[in-house]
Amino acid sequence: MAFDYDLIVIGAGSGGVRAARISAGHGAKVAVIEADRPGGTCVIRGCVPKKLLMYGSTFSADVEDARGFGWNVDAPTHDWPALIAAKDAELERLEGIYRKLLSNAGADLIAGYGVVTGPNTVMVGTREISAEHILIAVGGVPQMLDVPGMNEHAITSNEALDLAELPSEIVIYGGGYIALEFAGIFNGFGAKTHLVYRSDLPLRGFDEDVRVAIAEALSDRGIIMHPGTTVSNVSANGGAKSITLSDGSVIEADQLMAATGRSPNTSKLGLDSAGVAVGRKGEIIVDAESRSSVPSIFAVGDVTDRINLTPVAINEGHAFADSVYGNKPRVVSHENVASAVFSQPPIASVGLSEADAKDAFGEITVFESRFRAMKNTISGRGEKTYMKLIVDTASDRVVGVHMMGPDCGEIMQGIGIAVKAGATKADFDATIGIHPTAAEEFVTMRSPRG
Ligand code: NDP
Hints:
Elements: E1 5-10, H1 14-25, E2 30-34, H2 40-45, H3 47-68, H4 80-105, E3 108-111, E4 114-118, E5 121-124, E6 127-136, E7 140-142, H5 150-153, H6 157-160, E8 169-173, H7 177-188, E9 192-196, H8 208-220, E10 224-226, E11 231-237, E12 240-245, E13 250-253, E14 255-258, E15 262-264, H9 271-274, E16 297-299, H10 310-325, E17 339-341, E18 347-351, H11 354-361, E19 364-371, H12 374-379, E20 385-392, E21 398-404, H13 408-420, H14 425-430
Parallel strand pairs: 1-2, 1-6, 2-3, 6-16, 8-9, 8-14, 9-10
Antiparallel strand pairs: 4-5, 5-6, 7-15, 11-12, 12-13, 17-18, 18-21, 19-20, 20-21
Helix pairs in contact: 1-4, 1-10, 3-4, 3-7
């Protein structure tokens, strides 16, 4: 049977572009369909613009710290529109790179919304195109809760990255990655920032001690924490929003940002009629090779709701391409994937939390360290760094590493290699530290926690 293409990729984000480029490199004829800008969530609406704004927001704390080191700094002012314009220019540059990556690889980029119409066909507008394989890499979208007024009056991370002006007061609803990262951004730029979350601590699923440490640190940085609280109603009067919380209090703010999770972006993809099985959240159910219930249709990245991180999507896309077109079959390991939350201070971890390690191994040994980073001594910042190693007592293997403190995302990448390689506590102990750094604590923790 003759098809228009060997492969149609729907979605030109991190996972889709990697899969398309590598497949084309292996000789496949590839089309990529994208309804928005190439680059996807990470480049256009997520990791990249978020981190640029995060970098921008950290200078206020740097200026405070600089005073302790003898700098005389007048109260600095900030030009928000200038930052947004600089960020937009950078995104445009990156979008251009993504377009070039696809054209250099020989893949056709088709603008439009792709709807799956069968095991080998996709409609884009009025045009139906066919391929031997279809790869769905359409990512996720912010999830709005069904709360009166929320849909009309709340923004999501999409809009928060493009605000025309900095809010003077903002309520952020949620206690996950996105909520904490944006709370740090707005707080850093001087907005009065509230974090409203339903659990007693933020970041459910993270190590309990890290959750306690970050709640305290965010509060010390000036974020107004509302634990165990939900939003029950939102109304607006002109630009001002009235946000009623479950404890009966009302916050008047100029923005409410919903950061209450993301859903796979599958509702309009036509998966039902194509017979592709989806789970409760709309995620495409795939096997270890990223193959859906329809053998010719694959899916990678957030749309599968496995581990929703850019590098995971990229690896899944690359493994798909090598397996299907490169004669190098392989599957991605989803074990011991390190990640960082770019809150202020940031958090990073790899492996299991203490509670999960206890469940998995029974007897564990925990090493931890809490200290004031050297830079914080004469800057006068009281904030503590927290570090924790969790060891399976029987094998001596390090099965969980957690940190809250400056540069922990950078530090954890190297630790992730050690954990992935199965390093033992004895291996950590045999490693000589780099002095003076915070990271050296990971190789100098001698006494287990009592
Ligand atoms: P998360 O799942 O991290 O957080 C969602 C938050 O919304 C949680 O605090 C959750 O509370 C809350 N929530 C969900 N449902 C309700 C409800 N019905 N009522 C009240 N609160 C609710 O999602 P995010 O949107 O923050 O991020 C999505 C994913 O994107 C992350 O899990 C991560 O994989 C990825 N990401 C990664 C980043 C990075 O690597 N730095 C940055 C940003 C995103 P509860 O915990 O109590 O359920």
